[in-house]
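User: Some background: our group keeps a shared notebook of sequences we're curious about, and every so often someone picks one and asks for a predicted structure to add to the entry. Today it's my turn. The entry only has the sequence so far, pasted here. Could you supply the structure so I can complete it?
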Amino acid sequence: MENDFLGSSQDSGNQFKYYFSRSNFPLVVHIPTNRYFFKHWEVKPAAPIAIVVIVIFGNLVFYYSVGRYILSETIMISKIVLLLILSTLFLISYLNTVFFDPGFIPYNWYLTKKNSYSWEEQINNIAFTEDHFKIQANAFDKPPNCSFSKTYGRYIIRGDHICGFVANWIGKRNHKQFFLMQLYGFLLSLTFIIFYLIPSTKESLRYDYLQSIAMFLQFVFLLYTIGNGLTTYVDFLNGSTSIQQWKGIHVVKKPWKEQMREVFGNDSMIFWLLPTYPVF
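Assistant: Of course. Here's the predicted structure to add to the notebook entry:
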């Protein structure tokens, strides 16, 4: 397995070990704290793995418990295709939310004052120690419209909140994906529940324990997407982030289209509902 050491920089005093450093999937270890990073993303795989498994589980249970017993072959194919489309849109939006850079800015931004940084530059300038945090707190120049996260050791452009569900911050560059994740998650869960309750099968189906588990998971996720989706939508309309509301920061309300473009980018409105990277 390929690996090498990245020398400590004078400013950060950090030392890292790279695995697969010449590939598109580098794994970086911060040696003093033993924290792992995949490019800019700090590796926290539990939630992403669980969500992917649950979506695949839901589709398989539906097919084997309900789908193959549907009376009309046309209806069966239509339902399965619809579930696959919604599942794909949800998973793309979800994984983009997980792996997209939310808008990380180094804790020592005042040294460079750039708007974007490569993942290598980010890794080299994450605040890990109390000395780093003091430098950040005492810096005269701080990046505008950013929030500093001590947990992640970086600023986040228009940071909204840390989401454990996606194991990442929600910020300017992945907020669109977060919104679409909730939208398609809501539609997927609702469709699953409707198809289970109205199966259109040759005979009444008995609910076994797998269907019960699948139904329970879909119902819980439906409630989650409704609650978080409404909160996100209200924030969009108010033109504010969760952090701004929590801190009581007054935000001047902008026209609705301008507010939406802060999240969905300057692409054509046709692309707003597609899980593509927003252009700012």
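Suggested note for the entry: The first strand starts at residue 3 and ends at 6. The chain has two domains: 3-38+103-158, 46-100+168-273.
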